[in-house]
Design a protein that fits this description.
Bound molecules: adenosine-5'-triphosphate, magnesium ion
Strand order of the largest sheet of chain A: 1-7-2-3-6
Order of helices and strands of chain A: HHHHHHHHHHHHHEHEEHEEHHEHEHHHHH
Number of strands of chain B: 10
CATH superfamily of chain B: P-loop containing nucleotide triphosphate hydrolases
Shape of chain A: elongated
Number of strands of chain A: 7
Largest sheet of chain A: 5 strands, mixed
Helix content of chain B: 25-40%
Oligomer: heterodimer
CATH class of chain B: Alpha Beta
Largest sheet of chain B: 6 strands, mixed
CATH architecture of chain B: 3-Layer(aba) Sandwich
Shape of chain B: globular
Radius of gyration of chain B: 18 Å
C-alpha cells in the first residue's frame, strides 16, 4: 500500500522528476565514465607508454571533483523533492499514517529515484565510455584492439557511491520531516511571500556582497605560489558568499530603487516584471548562487581543458631530440629518409671497465644540443651544451649516455688522439631532431618501434626523449580535454535542470497572476515579453557573474598552462549556445503552464 | 436612458460537438442602463459565472449577441477584445486577485500602465480614488499586509481607476467577514449613487443583492423573475427578497 502511494506520487510528479532526473542521469553517467576510464584494465594490460599512465590519474581527479559536486547537487535536489511532496506527506499524516511509515515512504521514494537514475546513467555510461575510449586510443595511438567499456569494478563503485549519497539524502529528508510540525507541512504552499527585510540590513548585505566579491577577485588575480591555498580558498568562498549576498540583497535594492522611478516603471508591464523579479531573486538566492558558481566551474573546466589540448605542440618542443637509433637496418634507413629537415648527428663511444669514452672532436664538429625553458616569456629555446656539461652525469646528456650503455662509472671526453688509442670496440648512436615533431610523428614512432625491436636495451633511453614527452603530453592534454568537456557538461545539466525545475515548480503559483493580467485585458504578447525578460534575468545574472568568475579565476592557472585566456571565446560561445537552449526550453514550458 | 449593456438571446453550450454537451445558458435577454446597479442572483450551478465570463469577453457565447457601450462583442478579434477589456470593463473577484508581488499602489496603477498614458498623471489619479475608498494609508503596503476588506477595496480601486463603462463583480463579498462585507457593499452603492458607476454584481447572497436597485434571478440557465427596489428602503427590500426566495424555491 505504501509502495503504491510512493509510486503514484512519483507518477504524478513525473514531469518535475524528469527534469531533475536528467541531471542525475548525466551525473551518474559521467561518474561511471570517469571511473571506468580511471581503472580500465585495457590501459594496463598492455605495455603502456608513459602517456597512458596519466589517464587514471586525470580521470580519477575528475571523478573526485564530480563526486563532490554531485553530492551537493543531490542533497539540494532531494530537499526540492521533499518540499514538493511535503503537502502530500501532510495529508498522509492527517489520514492517520504514522511518521515512521512516512519516513519509510520518503526513503523508498528517494532510493527508487536514485536507483533508476543511476541504472540509466550507467547504461548510457557504457556507450560514452566506449566512444571516449576509442577516441582516446585513436588520439594516443595506443595499441589496444579491444577496448573494454564495461568495467564491473566501476559499475560496482558507481552504485555504491550513488546509493550511499541517496541514502544520506533520504535520511537527511526524514530528519527534516520529523522537525516540521504537521500544520506547517500542510501550509507550506500557502506561506505568504516574505517581504520587506530591514532596509538597512539589506543595504548592508548588498555592500558586503560587492566587497566580498572584490576580495575574492583580488585573491584570485594576485595568486602567488607561496600562498596558493590561502588565495584559492579566499577566492572560492569569497565568490560563493559574495554571490549569495548579491542575489539575496543587491539586486533587490537595485530593483527597489528602480521601482521608485515612476516615469520608468509606469509603462506597460514593467512594474509587474520588476515586482516579480524583486521577490523572485531573493527567493532564488540559493539556486542562483549555486548556478553561478557551478556555471563558473563548468565553464572553467571546459576552458582549461580546451587549453590543455592546445598545448600539445608545446609538449613536442620540450626535448630537442625526438628519438635515437643504434642500428641502420634497411627498414630504419627507409624511415630516416622520410623525415623532414632532420638533424641527425652520429656519436661514437668506447667502453672499458672504468667507464665510457667519447671523442671530443666529434662533439666539436656536431655540437650536442638541448632545450631550456625560459620562464620570462614561457617559451622553449634550443641551445648548445657546453662541452663540459656533456659528460656531467647530473646533466641531461650525461644521464642519457649512462642509460644508453647501462654501466656505472664516469663518462669522459677524450681528445681525438687519445680516443683512437683506446683498445675497446667502438659503438655508436644516432640522435634525431626534427623541426616539427607533430608533422613527423608517425615516422618517428615507427623508428622508435624498429629500434626497440632491434635493440631492446634502447627502450629505457627512448623514454627520455622527445617522442615520449610528446606522447605523455598527448595523453595529458587529451585526458584533460575530455575530462574538462564532460565535467563541464555534467555541471551544466545539473545546473540547468535545477534552475529549470525551480522556475517550473513556481509556475503553478504564478499562473493566477497571469490569468489576472489576462482578465484585465493585457495582450498576450506583453505577457510573453514580461516572461521572457523575467526568466532571462534569472538565467543571465548568474551566467554573467559566472563568466566574470571564470575570467578572473583563470589567473589561478597561469602557472599550469600558458595563456589560459587564449581562445576563450570558444567555450564561452559553446556555453552560451547550450545555456540559451535551456533558457528557451524553460520559457516554452513555463509559458505553456502559465498562459494556457 | 442609454443602455450600457445589452444581452440578446445568448446561449452557451459547453463541450465540443459529438461529445457530452451541457447548455449552461439557454437564451438570456436583459439590458443594463447607464448608472444602474444590477444584481444577478442564482443558486450554485445556475450559470452566473458563465454569464459574467461572456460579459467580460473572457469567453464567447455559442449564439446570440452582447453589446457593451454599443460595441458588439462578437465582432471583436482577440486582440481588440483584450483592448476592450482593459478600457471598458472593471472587475472585482471573490478572492481579490491582487498581485501580491506589487504594492497596493502598483496594483491599482496596472490598468493605467497598460494604456498609453502620461506616467506622471497616474499617481494623482490613484490618490484621488484612494481617498474615496479610504485606502490612502495602505497604498504603499503589500496586499499580504492589509485586511481582507481593505484588499477588496484596493481591488475595487483597481477595477475603477481607468473609468470603465461597467463594473463587473463576481461574489465580491464572498471572502469577507460580515462587517467588511457591509462596508464593501456600502462603498459600492455609494460609488453607484454619487459617481454613477454602472455596476453588475453576481451573488447568491440576498443580503448583498439587497444593495442593488434591480435584481435578476437566474435559474438553470434562464433569467426568470426580475425584482425592482423602487423607493423601498434597503432593509425592507432585503425582507422582500427573503420572502420571495422562501416561496420561490
Ligand atoms: N468549462 C465548463 N465546461 C463544462 N461545463 C461547465 C463549464 N463551466 C461551467 N460549466 C457548467 O455550467 C453550469 C453553470 O456553471 P457556473 O460556473 O456558471 O455556475 P455558477 O452559477 O457560477 O455557480 P457557483 O455559484 O457555484 O459559482 C454548471 O452546471 C457547470 O457545471
Ligand atoms: Mg460562480
Amino acid at each position: 500500500m505504501l509502495l503504491q502511494l510512493a509510486l503514484t506520487g512519483l507518477q504524478r510528479r513525473f514531469k518535475d522528476y524528469l527534469v531533475l532526473f536528467s541531471g542525475l542521469i548525466v551525473a551518474s553517467m559521467v561518474f561511471y565514465m570517469f571511473l571506468s576510464l580511471a581503472v580500465n584494465p585495457s590501459f594496463y594490460r598492455h605495455n603502456m607508454t608513459i602517456g597512458a599512465a596519466f589517464l587514471p590519474f586525470i580521470f580519477g581527479f575528475g571523478m573526485v571533483i564530480l563526486g563532490v559536486i554531485t553530492f551537493i547537487y543531490l542533497i539540494y535536489a532531494n530537499s526540492f523533492l521533499l518540499s514538493m511532496r511535503q503537502h502530500d506527506y501532510g495529508m498522509f499524516l492527517v489520514l492517520g499514517a504514522k511518521r515512521g511509515r512516512i519516513s519509510l515512504l520518503v526513503i523508498l521514494e528517494t532510493v527508487v529515484t536514485g536507483l533508476l537514475a543511476t541504472c540509466s546513467g550507467i547504461v548510457l555510461g557504457f556507450g560514452f565510455t566506449g566512444l571516449v575510449g576509442k577516441l582516446l586510443i585513436g588520439q594516443l595511438d595506443l595499441e589496444i584492439h579491444h577496448f573494454q567499456a564495461f568495467v564491473p569494478q566501476a559499475v560496482l563503485w558507481t552504485f555504491v557511491f550513488f546509493v550511499a549519497v541517496f541514502c544520506f539524502a533520504a535520511l537527511w529528508n526524514v530528519q527534516k520531516l520529523f522537525q516540521i510540525r504537521l500544520l506547517e507541512l500542510l501550509q507550506e504552499k500557502q506561506k505568504p511571500v516574505k517581504i520587506d527585510h530591514h532596509p538597512l540590513l539589506q543595504a548592508l548585505e548588498a555592500v558586503m556582497g560587492l566587497v566580498l566579491l572584490a576580495i575574492a577577485y583580488v585573491a584570485m588575480a594576485r595568486i602567488n605560489p607561496s600562498m596558493l591555498m590561502i588565495c584559492f580558498f579566499t577566492g572560492f568562498f569569497g565568490v560563493l558568499l559574495g554571490s549569495y549576498f548579491l542575489f539575496h540583497s543587491f539586486f533587490s535594492v537595485l530593483i527597489t530603487a528602480l521601482l521608485k522611478r515612476r516615469s520608468f516603471t509606469y509603462r506597460r508591464l514593467r512594474v509587474f516584471t520588476l515586482g516579480q523579479l524583486k521577490f523572485r531573486l531573493p527567493a532564488y538566492t540559493q539556486i542562483l548562487t549555486m548556478t553561478s558558481v557551478l556555471f563558473a566551474l563548468a565553464l572553467g573546466a571546459i576552458t582549461v581543458g580546451g587549453r590543455f589540448h592546445s598545448m600539445q605542440r608545446e609538449f613536442s618542443k620540450s626535448s630537442y631530440y625526438a628519438v635515437l637509433v643504434t642500428q641502420h637496418e634497411p627498414a630504419t634507413k627507409r624511415q630516416l629518409a622520410k623525415l623532414h629537415d632532420p638533424v641527425m648527428p652520429i656519436y661514437h663511444y668506447k667502453m672499458t671497465a672504468k667507464g665510457r669514452y667519447l671523442n671530443q672532436a666529434e662533439f666539436r664538429r656536431q655540437p650536442l644540443r638541448g632545450i631550456r625553458f625560459l620562464p620570462k616569456n614561457s617559451q622553449y629555446q634550443a641551445y648548445t651544451y657546453p662541452l663540459r656539461e656533456v659528460t656531467r652525469l647530473s646533466g641531461q646528456p650525461g644521464f642519457l649516455l649512462s642509460q644508453l650503455v647501462h654501466s656505472t662509472g664516469t663518462t669522459k671526453m677524450l681528445s681525438n688522439k687519445r680516443y683512437a688509442r683506446l683498445r675497446s670496440k667502438e659503438r655508436w648512436f644516432q640522435l634525431i631532431h626534427v623541426p616539427d615533431l607533430v608533422k613527423d610523428y608517425q615516422t618517428i614512432k615507427r623508428l622508435a618501434r624498429l629500434e626497440v625491436q632491434a635493440q631492446p636495451a634502447s627502450k629505457d633511453i627512448l623514454t627520455q626523449l622527445g617522442l615520449t614527452s610528446y606522447q605523455a603530453g598527448l595523453a595529458l592534454t587529451s585526458g584533460f580535454q575530455f575530462m574538462g568537456l564532460f565535467l563541464g557538461i555534467a555541471f551544466l545539466t545539473m545546473l540547468a535542470s535545477t534552475l529549470m525545475f525551480k522556475v517550473l515548480s513556481a509556475a503553478s503559483d504564478d499562473r493566477p497572476r497571469y490569468r489576472m493580467l489576462i482578465k484585465m485585458g493585457t495582450h498576450e504578447q506583453l505577457l510573453r515579453r514580461s516572461i521572457h525578460i523575467e526568466l532571462a534575468c534569472l538565467f543571465i545574472l548568474p551566467a554573467v557573474l559566472g563568466m566574470i568568475d571564470v575570467l578572473v579565476g583563470l589567473n589561478m592557472f597561469t602557472s599550469l598552462i600558458t595563456h589560459p585566456w587564449q581562445g576563450i571565446w570558444f567555450p564561452f560561445f559553446l556555453f552560451t549556445i547550450l545555456y540559451t537552449g535551456y533558457y528557451v526550453l524553460t520559457v516554452k514550458l513555463y509559458e505553456r503552464s502559465v498562459l494556457n | 436612458m442609454t443602455n450600457i449593456l445589452e444581452v440578446d438571446q445568448v446561449t452557451k453550450t459547453y463541450g465540443k460537438k459529438h461529445e457530452q454537451q451541457y447548455q449552461a445558458l439557454k437564451g438570456v435577454n436583459f439590458s443594463v442602463a447607464a448608472g444602474e446597479f444590477v444584481a444577478i442572483m442564482g443558486a450554485s450551478g445556475s450559470g452566473k459565472t458563465t454569464l459574467l465570463n461572456l460579459l467580460s469577453t473572457l469567453d464567447q457565447p455559442t449564439t446570440g449577441h452582447i453589446r457593451i457601450n454599443g460595441q458588439d462583442l462578437s465582432s471583436l478579434r482577440p486582440k481588440q477584445m483584450a483592448d476592450f477589456r482593459s478600457q471598458s470593463i472593471g472587475f472585482i473577484f471573490q478572492d481579490f486577485n491582487l498581485l501580491e508581488n506589487l504594492t497596493n499602489r502598483q496594483n491599482i496603477a496596472l490598468p493605467l500602465t497598460l494604456r498609453v498614458i502620461s506616467t506622471n498623471r497616474i499617481d494623482p489619479l490613484i490618490d484621488e480614488l484612494a481617498d474615496k475608498l479610504d485606502i490612502k494609508a495602505i497604498l504603499d503596503k503589500y496586499p499580504v499586509a492589509v485586511s481582507g476588506g481593505q484588499k477588496q477595496r484596493v481591488a475595487a480601486a483597481r477595477a475603477l481607476i481607468h473609468r470603465p463603462a461597467i463594473l463587473l463583480a463576481d461574489e465580491p463579498t464572498g471572502a469577507l467577514d460580515s462587517a467588511s462585507a457591509r462596508e464593501m457593499l456600502d462603498t459600492m452603492s455609494l460609488l453607484n449613487q454619487r459617481d454613477h458607476v454602472t455596476t453588475m454584481m453576481v451573488t447568491h447572497d440576498p443580503f448583498s443583492a439587497s444593495f442593488a436597485k434591480r435584481i435578476l434571478f437566474i435559474k438553470d440557465g434562464n433569467i426568470g423573475q426580475e425584482v425592482n427596489k423602487g423607493t423601498k428602503s434597503r432593509p425592507a427590500f432585503y425582507q422582500e427578497l427573503i420572502a420571495y426566495l422562501g416561496t420561490g424555491e
